């Protein structure tokens, strides 16, 4: 498999970050993951080595979803930039590949309903403490192909570390002030195109499912309930191009706790669904492989969270 394609499979997916500033439910629901989520090729790891990606984006806050799915007008924006690093180990494990990641970023967030408040600073660090990926080629796969026909499986353990800018007396906040532990599983399945050849040689389906456990915020004695989140993409591959749709959704499963006691907010649990187009291009400069990705996501439904729309750009390469 060409290194350009492999570099493009980095998990530095900088999608729309959920600006989930609570109004009485959880303090914040922010599903863990690489600066906003994962998308194409999300269960694939590249060959052993070191990889890096830069990301940047802007998001417009348009509405606040109430607890019954209705919405009210809200105002605000989010600008963010960051970098992700991936190390893929030389040692194989259970016929698969092992890797670890680290993501650092900065962000400015403004949000309000009656009036707008802003905050800027470092985001929480995210790391895939470990990630295991196994690729099972199909009958259509050949070693020289740039398209990985077959199925890749992913098992990982993610961790959000509360290093971001935080003040308990301020809203919004950039940091969370609590850890998020997120075991996750994923799959990427690539097969001959479902559509006419003019639209590409292959169809790819990718998804990553996270279970998010939040520790208690020691400054407020508040603990958010469990959340499951899913990032997904359905795309066409045509030579160096990849295009289609991508999205993210999450649902809070349990009520929050305050001072160790359950908060009766079953009707105020957070949920969200966002979707939009994606376009990626693999290329080389002086033999150095790069992958450039752009996507635009917009919220179509939610409960007790913001409705947002925004553009994200990612550029990835091998060190």
If you had to describe this structure to a student in words, what would you say it looks like?
This protein has 319 residues and is an all-beta fold. The protein has a single domain, classed as Beta Barrel (Lipocalin). It has 1 helix and 16 strands. The chain has a 12-stranded antiparallel β-barrel with strand order 1-2-3-5-6-7-8-10-11-14-15-16. Strands 9-12-13 form a 3-stranded antiparallel β-sheet, with no helix packed on it. A hairpin with a 1-residue loop joins strand 15 and strand 16. The model is unreliable at 1-26 (pLDDT under 50).
Supply the key terms.
319 residues, mainly beta, MetA-pathway phenol degradation-like protein, 16 strands, Lipocalin, 2% helix, FApF
Question: What's the SSE pattern?
Answer: HEEEEEEEEEEEEEEEE
Instruction: Count all strands and give the number.
Output: 16
Specify the overall morphology. globular
Oligomer: single chain
Main CATH class = Mainly Beta
For the report, how would you describe the main beta sheet? 12 strands, antiparallel, barrel
- Quote the beta fraction: over 45%
């Amino acid at each position: 498999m060409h290194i350009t394609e492999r570099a493009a499979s980095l998990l530095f997916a900088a999608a729309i970050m959920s600006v989930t500033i609570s109004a009485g439910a959880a303090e914040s629901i922010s599903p863990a993951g690489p600066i906003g989520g994962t998308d194409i090729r999300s269960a694939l790891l590249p060959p052993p080595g070191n990889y890096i990606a830069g990301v940047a984006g802007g998001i417009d806050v348009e509405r606040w979803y109430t607890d019954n799915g209705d919405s009210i007008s809200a105002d605000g924006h989010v600008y963010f930039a960051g970098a992700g690093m991936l190390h893929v180990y030389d040692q194989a494990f259970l016929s698969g590949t092992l890797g670890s990641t680290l993501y650092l970023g900065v962000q400015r967030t403004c949000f309000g309903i009656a009036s707008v408040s802003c905050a800027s600073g470092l985001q929480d660090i995210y790391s895939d403490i470990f990630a295991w990926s196994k690729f099972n080629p199909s009958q259509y796969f050949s070693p020289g192909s740039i398209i990985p026909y077959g199925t890749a499986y992913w098992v990982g353990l993610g961790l959000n570390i509360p290093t971001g800018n935080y003040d308990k007396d301020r809203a919004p906040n950039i940091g969370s002030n609590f850890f998020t532990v997120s075991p996750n599983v994923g799959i990427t399945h690539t097969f001959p195109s479902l559509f006419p050849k003019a639209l590409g040689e292959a169809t790819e389906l990718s998804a990553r499912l996270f279970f998010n456990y939040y520790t208690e915020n020691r400054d407020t004695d508040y603990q958010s309930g469990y959340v499951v989140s899913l990032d997904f993409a359905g795309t066409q591959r045509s030579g160096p191009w990849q295009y289609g749709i991508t999205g993210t959704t999450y649902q809070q499963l349990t009520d929050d706790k305050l001072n160790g006691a359950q908060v009766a907010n079953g009707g105020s649990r957070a949920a969200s669904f966002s979707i939009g187009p994606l376009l990626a291009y693999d290329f080389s400069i002086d033999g150095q492989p790069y992958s450039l990705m752009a996507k635009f996501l917009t919220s179509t439904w939610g409960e007790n969270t913001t409705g947002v729309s925004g553009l994200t750009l990612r550029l990835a390469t091998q060190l």
